[in-house]
Amino acid sequence: MDNNRDILLVEDNPDDIELTLRALKKSKIANEVTVAKDGVEALDYLFGTGTYAGRDISRMPTVILLDLKLPRISGLEVLKRLRAAKRTKLLPVVVLTSSKEEEDMVSSYRLGANSYIHKPVDFTKFVEAVRELELYWLVLNEPPPPAGKK
C-alpha cells in the first residue's frame, strides 16, 4: 500500500502560498507540498504533461488544495477536468479560496469538490483551519485506491 500523504497546493498568489506553507509548518504538518501556480501547471503535474512530462503519475497527492481564481485555467475548469478523467476523478479536492461568491461555492460542489473553505484573513484562524484540514484529510480520511487498483 502506498503511504503517500502529499499535498498539491494550487495557488497563484505568492502571499497566499507563503501563508499556507507557514500555516502548514506551524501546524507541524510535515507532508510534502507541491505548489502549482496556475491551472495549467496543476493539470500538467497531475497528468504528467508539459513541464511535468515523465513524472511518476502513479504517485498522486492525498489532497488537492485548490484556489478558484487562477491564471490561464481557472480552478473550476481544473476541477472539471479532474473529475472527467478516470485517474483523478476520485482525488479529494478542497477548494480553498478567498471568493465569497455563492455561485463559486455552488459550482465547486456541482463539479465535484469535496469541501469548500473560505480563507480566513486572520493568520491564527488560518493556521487553525489548516490544522483541521490536515487532521481530517491527511490523518482520518481514507483516500480511494489509485486508479486501476481495486
Automatic annotation (TrEMBL):
GO molecular function: DNA binding
Residues modified to 4-aspartylphosphate: D67
Lineage: superkingdom: Archaea
Keywords: DNA-binding, Phosphoprotein
Keyword Signal: no
GO biological process, one term: phosphorelay signal transduction system
Keyword Phosphoprotein listed: yes
Source organism of this protein record: Candidatus Methanoperedens nitratireducens
Response regulatory domain boundaries: 6-134
The name this protein goes by in its record: Response regulator with CheY-like receiver domain and winged-helix DNA-binding domain
InterPro entries according to UniProt: CheY-like_superfamily, Sig_transdc_resp-reg_receiver, TCS_response_regulator
